[in-house]
């Protein structure tokens, strides 16, 4: 996509647009109409197109992306904009501490692994 955008900086050129209708840029009405048809077909009548943006952002945060990465992915002009909207989704120090303590406890309570000496049981016929 970056290649396409870099190669088509003249927005008056129909090839510059990723999504078009009859070689014209797809504007709000066309997008809204197509989105409504898509969500109806998918039986998701209450999902807004903007909800997909929030889903994308929360997925990036859950995957461990930092604020600047999410900012750039969403096209926000500043990290402050991203944080104002999504700061509640990043884990806090307390969340990380609880996770680490839980893993430590699980590890300590895990039964020791049983190992067998497969080589000793091997027998070759000659």
Report on the structure:
The model has no long low-confidence stretch (mean pLDDT 84). Strands 1-2 form a two-stranded antiparallel sheet. The chain has helices spanning 2-7, 28-41, 49-62, 67-74, 79-86, 93-109, 118-121, and strands at residues 20-21, 24-25. It is elongated and about 70 Å long. It is mainly alpha-helical and 126 residues long. The protein starts with a helix and ends in a 5-residue tail after the last helix. It has 2 domains: 1-47, no CATH class; 48-108, no CATH class.
Short description:
By secondary structure, the chain is mainly alpha-helical. 56% of the residues lie in helices and 3% in strands.
Strand content: under 5%
Structural class: mainly alpha
The rounded distance between the terminal residues' Cα atoms is: 64 Å
Mean pLDDT: 84
Biggest sheet, spatial arrangement of strands:
1-2
* H and E string: HEEHHHHHH
Q: Tell me roughly what share of residues is in helical segments.
A: 55-70%
Count of folded domains? 2
List keywords for this structure.
two-stranded antiparallel ribbon
Helix and strand arrangement:
Elements: H1 2-7, E1 20-21, E2 24-25, H2 28-41, H3 49-62, H4 67-74, H5 79-86, H6 93-109, H7 118-121
Antiparallel strand pairs: 1-2
């Amino acid at each position: 996509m970056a290649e396409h955008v870099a190669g088509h900086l003249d927005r008056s050129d129909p090839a510059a647009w990723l999504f078009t209708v009859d070689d014209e840029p797809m504007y709000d009405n066309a997008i809204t109409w197509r989105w409504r048809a898509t969500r109806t077909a998918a039986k998701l009548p209450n999902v807004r197109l903007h909800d997909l943006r929030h889903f994308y952002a929360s997925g990036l945060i859950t995957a461990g992306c930092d604020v600047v990465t999410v900012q750039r992915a969403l096209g926000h002009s500043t990290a402050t904009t991203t944080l104002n909207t999504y700061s509640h989704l990043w884990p806090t120090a307390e969340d990380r501490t609880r996770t680490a303590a839980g893993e430590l406890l699980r590890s300590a309570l895990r039964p020791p692994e049983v190992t067998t000496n497969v080589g000793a049981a091997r027998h070759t016929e000659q």
